[in-house]
């Protein structure tokens, strides 16, 4: 091993956290002797366990329990909250901006490294649809999940108090765009929560609400197969949720959702979950990318044609050596990301010690999805489950996968308590603009960040 190995991990998601976690275990002696250092650069000081976002939005799990604090689980790594905006791998440098960069006035910092792991993940793929940027909300972060929960409950408050039928109709109309995991699970959990919440309103009934799922293709949840996809459509429609297949959102300007089939829905809620795209950082590197903008990787998780550079997860096009058809890549999901991180970390250690690298090989075992409390679908090891058994499997699987025993215990405790007591139905939308009330009290006007925000609790 070289005298000192500086390992830079870009991203604190599944791949970033699990890679750093395994590296600090495998390189514990070297870290203790100062022969290695691991730096993790991440925009947030925590890793979000995204499969639990729908349950956090529905109030089944506390928001703090779907995130894992990186400094606690990576005590032997240097965690830097910031963003890598460019990578010059030929010079082994990364351009870093932090929360203090603007105030310092000295410009971005240049980090030097010996080995780099690129795992910045993906960002929402927003299309140039009129009104989308102004009125829609995504569903990739815990902040968006909690903001959406607050927003939905606030719409019930608006509908309950207004005397204008048009405002009431728009407040009780919820449009979700995208029929993948994020869209279907978010819709299922939030509709379940909202239907329960209406029992505490004297003039809002479940049938007053209109929930619409818009999907551009001819099926939803393709990961669970066509049969369970059709079952999911039937289950959602049985709950009076409109599922519009082969349909696109063409505009949501002026708080009116206009669909490609000609339908128009006045609405104050548009949730955009129609796909993701590679992180913009990848375009600011000198590393090879495929036609979709992802880093070209080898089965050993090195970046093709570049030494000392590694990638996995959403940002990487990793060949699937178990696939029947040649040229196939592994799916960009958590199941692969966690397992790729394990192989990636081991291969970095092997590379430092001059040993042969392992090939990443994992056959996809299946998928599970929740459709609300006690409802779900699952396709695991060739077996198809629906209803309560699938929902139970969904919970059991993700409880086993959420990182750290601390988080497992907290989530299990919350589920247990939720089974004994009634749901919480409180909206804390003001949390998103905590200074607004004081600014008004102090005689000022609310700043931009505390003004009416269509993406938050407005």
Biggest beta-sheet profile: 7 strands, mixed
Under CATH, the topology of the largest domain can be stated as FAD/NAD(P)-binding domain
Shape: globular
CATH architecture of the largest domain: 3-Layer(bba) Sandwich
Structural class by helix and strand composition: alpha/beta
Strand content: 15-25%
> Biggest sheet, strands in spatial order?
7-6-5-2-1-8-20
- Tell me the radius of gyration: 23 Å
Treating each run of at least 4 consecutive H or I residues as one helix, how many helices?
Answer: 14
End-to-end separation: 57 Å
Count up the domains: 2
Work out the helicity level: 25-40%
Protein name: NAD(P)/FAD-dependent oxidoreductase
EC number: 1.6.5.-
Biased composition (Basic and acidic residues): 446-458
GO molecular function, one term: oxidoreductase activity
What are the key terms here?
NAD, FAD/NAD(P)-binding domain, 7-stranded mixed β-sheet, 22% strand, globular, 14 helices, alpha/beta, 2 domains, NDH-2, disordered C terminus, FAD, flavoprotein, 458 residues, FAD/NAD-binding_dom
Q: Please, could you describe this protein's structure?
A:
The radius of gyration is 23 Å and the shape is globular. 33% of the residues lie in helices and 22% in strands. The strands form seven sheets. A seven-stranded mixed β-sheet has the order 7-6-5-2-1-8-20. Strands 10-17-11-12-13 form a five-stranded parallel β-sheet. Helix 1 (14-26) runs parallel beside helix 11 (334-352). A hairpin with a 4-residue loop joins strand 15 (256-259) and strand 16 (264-266). The protein has 14 helices and 24 strands. With 458 residues, the protein is of the alpha/beta class.
């Amino acid at each position: 091993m070289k005298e000192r190995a500086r390992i830079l991990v870009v991203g604190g998601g599944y791949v970033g956290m699990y890679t750093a976690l395994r590296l600090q275990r495998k390189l514990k002696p070297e870290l203790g002797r100062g022969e290695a250092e691991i730096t993790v650069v991440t925009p947030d000081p925590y890793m979000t366990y995204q499969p639990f976002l729908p349950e956090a939005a529905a109030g089944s799990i506390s928001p703090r329990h779907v995130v894992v604090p990186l400094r606690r689980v990576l005590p032997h790594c240097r965690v830097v909250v910031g963003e890598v905006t460019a990578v010059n791998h030929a010079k082994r440098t990364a351009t870093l901006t932090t929360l203090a960069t603007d105030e310092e006035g000295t410009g971005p910092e240049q980090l030097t490294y010996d080995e780099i792991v690129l795992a910045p993940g993906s960002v929402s793929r927003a299309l140039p649809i009129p009104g989308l940027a102004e009125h829609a909300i995504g569903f990739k972060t815990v902040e968006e999940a909690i903001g959406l929960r607050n927003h939905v409950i606030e719409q019930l408050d608006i509908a309950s108090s207004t005397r204008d039928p048009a405002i009431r109709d728009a407040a009780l109309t919820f449009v979700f765009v995208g029929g993948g995991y994020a869209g279907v699970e978010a819709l299922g959990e939030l509709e379940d929560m909202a239907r329960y919440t209406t029992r505490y309103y004297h003039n809002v009934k479940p049938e007053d609400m209109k929930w619409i799922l818009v999907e551009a293709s001819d099926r939803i949840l393709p990961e669970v197969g066509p049969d369970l996809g059709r079952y999911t459509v039937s289950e959602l429609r049985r709950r009076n949720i409109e599922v519009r297949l082969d349909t696109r959102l063409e505009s949501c300007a002026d708080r009116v959702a206009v669909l490609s089939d000609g339908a128009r829905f006045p609405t104050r809620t548009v949730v955009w979950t129609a796909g993701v795209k590679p992180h913009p950082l990848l375009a600011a590197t000198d590393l090879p990318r495929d036609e979709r903008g992802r880093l070209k990787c080898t089965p050993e998780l090195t970046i093709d044609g570049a030494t000392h550079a590694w990638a996995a997860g959403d940002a990487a096009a990793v060949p699937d050596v178990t696939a029947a058809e040649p040229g196939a890549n592994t799916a960009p999901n958590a199941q692969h990301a966690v397992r790729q991180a394990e192989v990636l970390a081991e291969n970095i250690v092997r590379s430092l010690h001059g040993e042969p690298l392992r090939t990443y090989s994992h056959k996809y075992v299946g998928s599970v999805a929740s459709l609300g409390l006690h409802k779900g679908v699952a396709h695991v090891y060739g077996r198809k489950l629906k209803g309560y058994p699938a929902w139970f499997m969904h919970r059991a699987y993700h409880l086993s996968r959420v990182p750290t025993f601390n988080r497992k215990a907290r989530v299990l405790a919350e589920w247990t308590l939720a089974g004994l007591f009634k749901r919480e139905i409180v909206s804390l939308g003001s949390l998103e603009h905590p200074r607004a009330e004081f600014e008004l009290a102090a005689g000022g006007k609310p700043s931009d960040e505390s003004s009416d925000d269509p993406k938050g609790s407005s």
